[in-house]
Amino acid sequence: MNEDNKMTDKKVIETEITMGTVHSAAIEPYRVRLFVEDEIVRDAEITVGINHRGIERIMEGLPVEKANSLTEKICGICSNSHIWNSVLVAEKAVGIDVPERAQYIRIIMEELERLHSHMLYLAHGSEVLGHETFAMRLFYIRETVMELLRMIGGNRVQYGVSIIGGIRPRCELDEMRIQKIREGMDIIEEKILEFADRFVSDPMIMARITGVGVLSQKQAIKLAATGPTLRSTGVEIDLRREMESYDPFEFDIITQDDGDVKSNLLVRVLEIPEAIKIIRQALDNLPAGKITNRSWEMQDAPITKSYIEVPRGKLYHSYSLEDGRVRNCIIRTPSITNIGAMQYAAVGHHITDAQLAIVQCDPCFTCTDRAIQIIKI
Amino acid sequence: MTALNSLIAVIGTLIVALLVSVWLPGIERKFVQARIQQRVGPPISSAGIMAPIKFFFKETINPNSPMPKLYNALPIISFLSVLFILLLTIPQLYVFAAFTSIIALVGLLKIEEVIYMFMGSLSKSVMSLKMPFPDIVKGAKHPDTPRSYLEELSSLRAFRLIAFGSFPLYIALFVPVAMSKSIYLSGIVAYQQIHGPVLFTLAGVLGAIVFFIGYMILLNEYPFAILKTKADVIEGPLMEYAAKYRAYNYITRGFLMFVLASIFTTLFLGIPPNLFSWTILVTIAVALIFPILMAVMSAFSPIFTYKQFYPTVAGVSVIGILAIIASFL
Questions:
Q1: Cα dihedral A254, A259, A262, A268 sign
Q2: What is the pTM assigned to this prediction?
């Protein structure tokens, strides 16, 4: 896209189109102000905070186990990521060793969650494109993952797998469960590759998504975009490579170069087989032994930080511990910077493409809305 | 006796059209789109029959419109214009020569299109309302920019549809005119009774393809649904219609499906909707086939933006012009 399009000169802005806070193309409440000239977006403003819940504030003073459970409520899509990262903070702060088998099962859960999150993203993207058939079929494929998550965690969302020191006993993987996961992976791999093939060979879809919502690599870095959104601009950064838990696993970091909707979709499509690869490795090499370390004692700890790579990018949790209770809690989800970046990606495109450009970063507004908002008076 | 027969034919045809048309949206959604999308889908009677009945008994709202009475009257005007189109294709009314010409048909179709423009410009739904306080407190961008409603945007798009988008349909309508060298429907039908259906010629085949694309554009169906794009203008000009006014919209859409099929059979097959002939079954069959084809096409395509819409319309219009040229050969 021409950089000249990214102008905010008031003279060229004819009118404002406001979308939201409730809009049919947005599954969560947020507001977009599009400043348009002949249906071409000249500037955009995205406002979040409509669904603010202040979870960090609620967590303050709660026993750490309860606070960890509460983090699952931050997001219905990446609930496992939140509880895992929150538990990691406590384990790091207190110095708790986690059994290797539990580490593997946590990885399996996280990658299953990545699968369902990416498929949800693809389905939602297809819906915004107006391609309901692809959206329905993706939901159909995703159902296999949802059932696997339900089998392990007992729920389709908020599985409650990770606890301090390991995983819950009910989430242990026996032979029957392992076999079902293997079968599920075979089904998903076959179907998602078939979908990807059809998706990229559809000229109408390619016409709609190529060159739309372009975010240059320079801009992505400047605006601190993260996760697949950053990788779609050609930056090869995946926090999983730096995480100790992922050391035993071989996988490729998927990147694309164009930073447009097509690149974003392709990065996520191609990350699905990589996630399946990790799950298969974890199942093949699942160590024997216990799944929970009970021999630890709670102690006070200063502010401890933890970063993990979740489906949308880098997730940050930090808190300190005082008498077994959470203090100074801060949570930063990947969507906050990605949404900011999308204000730029939407500029220069037709108004129908603006929603697509915003959705391309896989925004999770309710995740982001949990932060405390301070208005300077 | 002839007058009575004509009256029975007209009323009977209208009843048949209404009875068939209420099932068409359901067939489109249930039998085709839902099957393709591997979902159960709504009951077949839902979209065309149960939904309008339900809406008729709901409490209506006062639209946020500068002219609420006119705004509420527009769906009825739209329905009447479609009704008149059907009337002029009924052979018993061919005696009203000027009324049953292709010019009258185009004029009435244009009324149906123009109504969307009025609907959009007269509607100001809550969907686009500004929230002034956060805009000021948070130091929002461009605080003084005039605001446009989503419906106004779709009104502008309706204007573009009238000016450009519906070209294919109108070009296709003139293929039988060019072949029969008559602007009167009676002349076009008579020509085909002697020379065979226009559809069975090269010009007719090309014209039929162009007509079908025009049919989809006029019905605002995916991928040409720029008036009702879910990603931005949502329901577009129909956003504020509630209760019985929405019911009129639903009925009109189904009715328009039947009427366009009736136009097609009249112009391309030489078979007008005649209640006293078995050929009415052909009209009904075409009325069923068109939504099925449309549902297949829309199930496998994303919504177009102008970037895809303009070239598609231009390309299809060129095919239409070629069809007209071929009709002179």
A1: positive
A2: 0.92
